[in-house]
Input
Amino acid sequence: MKLLLKRFPTPKGIFGTFGELYVDGELFCYTVEREWKNNEGYLFCVPACVYDFLPHESSRYGNC
Output
């Protein structure tokens, strides 16, 4: 499974970072995150980067 998150610049006065999430090349859903503020207090959106996700077993959430 390949995930791709495309983010779009937001105009001033609009709070949030909007995007589209693709799964294996197909649009899956639209996204919204808090705006980027240099990760101040780790409260804002995930920094742009390439991330590897690995399936795992969570005691709280099961298969993730």
